[in-house]
Amino acid sequence: MSTTRDSSVSFDQTDTRSDEMNSTIEQWIDDLVAGVDDAQASEEFQEWLDVQSRFHDYSYRNTLLIKRQCPEASRVAGYRTWQEEFDRHVTEGESAIWIWAPIITKQCPECENSPSYHEDSDCEYDETPPEEWSEGLVGFKPAPVFDVSQTEGEPLPDLDTEATGDASDLVEQLTDAADDLGVTVRIVPAEEWTHGEAKGICEQLSLVDVQPLVEVRDRENEADLARTLIHEYAHALLHFDVDDDDTERSKREVEAEAVAYVVGRYCGLDTSGSAFYLAAWESDDPEIVRERLGRISRTAEKLIDVLESESPSSLS
After folding, report:
1. Per-residue DSSP letters for 232-276?
2. What is the dihedral of CA 169, 263, 41, 54, to 10 degrees?
3. Treating both helix axes as pointing N-terminal to C-terminal, what angle do 17-41 and 246-266 enclose, rounded to 10 degrees?
4. DSSP the chain
5. Backbone phi, then psi, for 183, in 5-degree steps?
């Protein structure tokens, strides 16, 4: 699916401009939803989904432990799991990342201890012998895991979500637009990036200055760099300084990427990779994009207006 901007599409300053923008954006959102449906049905996505399902979900405590020991970690698994599940091997000399692993064993129905601890406790339960007890969580033990970057072997399937096309001076226009949007923006060299696999982040600048700070990891693909900037700008405009749970976070991620899809497409980029991005975030309900059309449309229009005011001739 090609999403580069039709050269006949322009939103000139006329009485019908707002209606034309709304109509075009709604059509592009329909295209995006159809693209997400296609992405979910593709063999590439199903292969990726299968691999992701084999990684464990870690508790908040273990996630903090992993990030503290290896900030760039993206996918972690045990030594044997890498070998047996993914046909990869831990590189010689790599240091393990230590987490807390659950101890699951026979458990006393009353004191909830393992048989050995039950024997040393004051618990007098003796209605059934230990071999008939159900298994349960009796504690935790340190366990080593390794990040994918510490392994070598068969490659893991990846989803190509990058935008492509001629970005021209779009990145410069986007950074110049930061003041008009009330955002501080930084393009960080890849070797100085400290946010792991994330391509960009939006957070509070400081405890004193509550202005949104957008940081994006620099890369050769300027079209994708521009898409990431638009995505993070959308977060700054829509979601900054808002607490949410994981479900709401997914929906907000969908909103930001839909804005990136629309604005990127208007600027002449191929943003069809957004379909894979959204399939990975909201794999069971692409209709969430349509449900949030108003917020997406308003934010996309604002970004397009700011870009046009920066350099009208380059986007018309």
Report:
1. HHHHHHHTTT----HHHHHHHHHHHHHHHHHHHHHTT-B-TTHHH
2. 70
3. 120
4. ---PPPTT----SSTTHHHHHHHHHHHHHHHHHHHHHHHHHSHHHHHHHHHHTTSPPPPHHHHHHHHHH-TT---EE-HHHHHHHHSEEEPTTPPPEEEEEEEEEE--TTT---HHHHHTSS----SS-GGGSPEEEEEEEEEEEEEGGGEEESPPP------BS--TTHHHHHHHTHHHHT-EEEEE-GGG--STT-SEEEEES-SS--SEEEEEE--S-HHHHHHHHHHHHHHHHHTTT----HHHHHHHHHHHHHHHHHHHHHTT-B-TTHHHHHHHHSTT-TTHHHHTHHHHHHHHHHHHHHHHHH-HHHH-
5. -130, 145
Q: Decide if 151 contacts 91 (C-beta within 8 A).
A: yes
Indicate the residue type of 137.
Answer: L
The residue behind tokens 């929906």 is 251
Contact 278, 286 (CB under 8 A): yes
Q: Are 153 and 87 contacting, i.e. CB atoms less than 8 angstroms apart?
A: yes
Question: Can you name the residues that pair with 201 across neighbouring β-strands?
Answer: 215
Tens of pLDDT, residue by residue over 20-75, are 888 999 999 999 999 999 999 999 999 998 898 888 888 889 989 998 999 888 89
Rounded to whole angstroms, the Cα distance separating 90 from 152 reads: 6
- Position 98, amino acid: W
Q: In this predicted structure, what is the pLDDT of residue 47?
A: 92
For residue 273, how many C-alpha atoms fall within 13 Å in the half-sphere facing its CB? 17
* C-alpha distances in Å from residue 36, one per residue of 105, 224, 265: 43, 19, 16
Q: What was the pLDDT predicted at 172?
A: 95
Counted residue by residue, the chain has a size of 316
